[in-house]
Amino acid sequence: MIVVTTESVAGYSTVQSLGQAFGVVVRSRGIAGNIMASLRTIIGGEIKEYTEMLEDARRHALDRMVQNATLMGANAVLMMRFDSSEIGQNMSEIVAYGTAAIIRPNQG
């Protein structure tokens, strides 16, 4: 599966657009992680517990989007984007989305 943030893939033609593919993940840091993160906010700097959680959530959302696109019959996802939001005070939602497409290498 080719996943790009661009409208097209160099050296390929888009044969068919299949619609929106997406993957959603909602994550919550456990109580111990929240306590450590709260202590780090006093000192300042990067909150590594949340950075790691969001990196993992992005990878998981991307994997789910690829699975969704595969089920649609796609071999590529074009214009891939991430979006994130908070749900309540302890949860983060990460969405990976893009256009599922069938692409073919250019001849010549």
Description:
The chain is elongated and about 60 Å long. It has one domain (2-105): 2-Layer Sandwich (Translation Initiation Factor IF3). It is of the alpha+beta class. It contains 2 helices and 4 strands; from the N terminus they run E-E-H-H-E-E. The model has no long low-confidence stretch (mean pLDDT 89). It has a 4-stranded mixed β-sheet with strand order 1-3-4-2.
Quick rundown:
The chain is α+β, with helices and mostly antiparallel strands. It has 2 helices and 4 strands; from the N terminus they run ββααββ.
Q: What is this structure's SSE topology?
A:
Layout: E1 2-3, E2 12-28, H1 31-43, H2 48-71, E3 76-87, E4 91-105
Parallel strand pairs: 1-3
Antiparallel strand pairs: 2-4, 3-4
Care to count the β-strands? Answer: 4
| Tally of separate domains | 1
What fraction, in percent, of the residue positions are helical?
A: 25-40%
Q: Figure out the total of helices.
A: 2
Question: What integer is the average pLDDT?
Answer: 89
Keywords:
single chain, 108 residues, alpha+beta, Translation Initiation Factor IF3, four-stranded mixed sheet, 2 helices, 4 strands, elongated
